[in-house]
C-alpha cells in the first residue's frame, strides 16, 4: 500500500499537531498513570502507621453496629471496606443530612470528614493521571485529550504502515540523533499500539461518560436516563422500605455467602473488598458486596437480602449485563485490574514508554524545524523546547517531591493532604518557571539532576520516617515497600544518566540547535 504524497503530508501534519496539542497532558497522564497502577502499594508506603492487617470480621461487625446505632442517617445507605482491603482496618462511610461524607473506623465512630488511616498521596497521583490535578473540568479535558490521542494514533499508523515491515526494528544509533530518536519513537509506538488504542478508548469512556449521559439524556432517553442510571450501574436492585423492622444477618454470613456465590459462577479466587448496605434495620434491607477476582477482567459483585441472605442479583465475570461488562472492562483494562503483578509491571513499563513517546515527539517536532544555517533558532522551537523541559521534567520532580513530602509532613505535624498538594504543584510551577528563564539545554540538565536528587531522597526519607529501610523491607518480605524504594533508586539513576546524556549532547551537537551549548 502506497499513499499519495499529498495524503501522506496530510496525515503527517494531522499526527504532528494532534500529538503536540495533547502531548503535554498525555505525558503527565502516562507518567502519573504508571505509578497509579500500584496505588494500593503506594497507599501502604505512604502511610507511616501501615501494618499488616490484624483486624477481623468481628471488628468490622462491631464497627458497623456502632455506626448504625450512633448515626441514624447511615441506616439509609452506608458503605464499609473489609479488613485488609487497601487498609489494614475496616472503614465505614456515609452521608449526613447535608450530603457531607463522614468516615469512621474502629475506636473512632463519631464521624469525621477525614478518611482515617488513608494517606492522600495515591489519590493526588491518580488525580494528576485522570484530571491533571484540575477538579472536575480536568476530567473532561482528559476525555477530549483521549480523543485527540486516538486521532494521533490512527494517523501515525497510516503514516508508518507502508514501511512498517522494513523500519519496525530499524534502530540506527550514531551522530544523527534525529534519526535515532525517530527510530526509537516509531518502534515503541508501533509495538505498543494495541495498548495505546486501548488506553485512548478506555480513557475517553471513563472521562466522558457523564458528559455523554448528560448530552444523550434529553435527545434519546426523554430525560429519564439519570434516574435510571443508578439501577443500570449498581448490582443491587432498588427496593422500597417495607416499614417493618427486621434484624440484619451477621456480616460474616454476607462475606461467606458472596464467596460461595462467586464460586458457583466459576470465580474461585473472589475476595470481598467492600459492601454497600441500604435500609438497615428494615425487612427490605439490601447489601451489595463488591470484590476482586485477580485472574479475571475486573472484579464482581453480589447483591443479597441483608436479612435472609438470599441472592438478589449478581454481576460477576462471564455473567454480567452489557452495562456492567462495558464499565468493568474499561476500568480493568485501563488500570491493570487483572492478571496480577506481572500485568501491573507491564502497564508500568508501558506507562513510562508512553511518556517517552510524547516527550520524543516534541523533540522530533523541534528538530524537524531547526534552522541549520543560522545560530538563532525560531521562537516556536525555543518555546516548545522550554515548555517540554519545564512541564515534562517538572512533573517528574513534582511527583517525587510529593513522595518525599508524604513522609516528612507527618513528622512535622502539618496537614499532609494540603501540604502535599502545595509541594507538588509549587515545585512543578517553579520547574516550569526555571525552564522558561534558562536556555533549554541548561534547564534540561539542571532539572534532570534535580529529579535525580529528589527521587533518590524517596527511600531515604521513608527509612527515616518509618524505620522501613530498603534492606529491612526486603528481609521482612514487604514487597510493596521494597519495590517502591528500589524503583525510586532506579528512576533516580535513570534521571542522572539522562542529565549526563544531555550534557554530552550540548557539547557535541551541531551548534545551530536549541540543544547546543554554543547556541545557548
Automatic annotation (TrEMBL):
The keyword Chloroplast does not apply. It comes from the Bacteria. InterPro entries: PepSY-ass_TM. Keywords: Membrane, Transmembrane, Transmembrane helix. It holds the Pfam family PepSY_TM. The keyword Membrane applies. The chain crosses the membrane at residues 140-165, 186-216, 345-366, 387-412, 418-436, 448-471, 477-498. This is PepSY-associated TM helix domain-containing protein. It comes from Rhodanobacter ginsenosidimutans. The lineage of its organism: Bacteria, Pseudomonadati, Pseudomonadota, Gammaproteobacteria, Lysobacterales.
Amino acid at each position: 500500500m502506497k499513499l499519495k504524497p499529498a495524503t501522506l503530508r496530510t496525515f503527517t501534519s494531522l499526527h504532528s499537531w494532534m500529538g503536540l496539542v495533547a502531548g503535554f497532558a498525555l505525558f503527565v497522564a502516562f507518567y502519573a498513570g504508571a505509578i497509579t497502577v500500584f496505588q494500593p502499594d503506594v497507599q501502604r508506603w505512604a502511610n507511616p502507621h501501615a501494618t499488616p492487617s490484624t483486624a477481623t470480621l468481628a471488628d468490622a461487625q462491631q464497627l458497623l453496629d456502632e455506626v448504625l446505632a450512633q448515626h441514624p442517617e447511615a441506616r439509609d445507605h452506608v458503605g464499609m471496606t473489609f479488613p485488609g482491603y487497601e487498609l489494614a482496618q475496616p472503614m465505614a462511610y456515609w452521608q449526613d443530612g447535608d450530603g457531607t461524607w463522614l468516615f469512621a473506623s474502629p475506636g473512632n465512630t463519631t464521624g469525621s470528614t477525614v478518611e482515617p488511616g488513608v494517606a492522600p498521596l495515591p489519590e493526588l497521583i491518580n488525580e494528576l493521571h485522570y484530571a491533571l490535578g484540575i477538579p472536575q473540568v480536568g476530567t473532561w479535558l482528559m476525555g477530549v485529550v483521549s480523543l485527540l490521542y486516538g486521532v494521533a494514533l490512527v494517523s501515525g499508523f497510516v503514516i508508518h504502515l507502508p514501511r512498517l515491515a522494513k523500519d519496525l526494528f530499524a534502530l540506527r544509533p550514531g551522530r544523527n540523533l534525529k534519526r535515532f530518536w525517530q527510530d526509537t519513537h516509531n518502534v515503541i509506538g508501533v509495538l505498543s499500539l494495541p495498548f495505546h488504542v486501548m488506553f485512548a478508548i478506555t480513557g475517553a469512556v471513563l472521562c466522558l461518560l457523564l458528559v455523554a449521559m448528560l448530552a444523550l439524556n434529553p435527545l434519546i432517553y426523554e430525560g429519564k436516563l439519570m434516574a435510571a442510571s443508578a439501577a443500570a450501574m449498581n448490582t443491587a436492585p432498588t427496593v422500597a422500605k417495607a416499614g417493618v423492622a427486621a434484624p440484619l444477618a451477621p456480616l460474616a454470613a454476607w462475606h461467606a455467602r458472596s464467596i460461595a456465590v462467586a464460586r458457583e459462577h466459576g470465580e474461585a479466587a473472589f475476595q470481598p473488598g467492600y459492601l454497600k448496605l441500604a435500609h438497615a434495620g428494615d425487612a427490605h434491607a439490601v447489601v451489595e458486596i463488591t470484590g476482586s477476582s485477580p485472574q479475571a477482567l475486573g472484579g464482581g459483585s453480589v447483591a443479597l437480602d441483608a436479612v435472609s441472605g438470599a441472592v438478589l442479583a449478581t454481576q460477576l465475570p462471564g455473567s454480567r449485563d452489557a452495562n456492567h461488562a462495558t464499565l468493568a472492562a474499561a476500568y480493568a483494562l485501563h488500570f491493570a485490574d487483572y492478571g496480577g503483578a506481572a500485568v501491573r509491571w507491564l502497564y508500568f513499563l508501558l506507562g513510562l514508554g508512553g511518556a517517552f513517546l510524547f516527550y520524543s515527539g516534541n523533540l522530533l517536532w523541534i528538530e524537524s524545524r531547526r534552522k541549520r544555517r543560522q545560530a538563532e533558532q525560531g521562537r516556536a522551537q525555543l518555546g516548545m523546547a522550554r515548555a517540554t523541559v519545564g512541564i515534562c521534567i517538572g512533573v517528574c520532580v513534582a511527583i517525587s517531591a510529593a513522595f518525599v513530602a508524604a513522609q516528612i509532613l507527618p513528622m512535622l505535624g502539618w496537614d499532609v493532604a494540603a501540604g502535599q498538594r502545595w509541594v507538588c504543584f509549587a515545585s512543578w510551577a517553579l520547574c516550569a518557571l526555571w525552564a522558561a528563564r534558562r536556555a533549554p539545554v541548561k534547564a534540561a540538565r539542571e532539572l534532570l539532576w534535580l529529579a535525580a536528587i529528589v527521587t533518590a531522597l524517596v527511600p531515604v526519607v521513608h527509612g527515616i520516617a518509618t524505620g522501613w529501610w530498603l534492606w529491612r523491607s526486603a528481609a521482612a518480605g514487604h514487597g510493596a515497600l521494597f519495590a517502591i524504594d528500589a524503583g525510586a533508586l532506579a528512576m533516580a539513576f535513570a534521571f542522572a544518566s539522562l542529565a549526563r546524556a544531555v550534557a554530552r549532547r550540548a557539547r557535541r551537537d551541531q551548534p545551530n540547535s536549541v540543544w547546543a551549548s554554543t547556541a545557548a
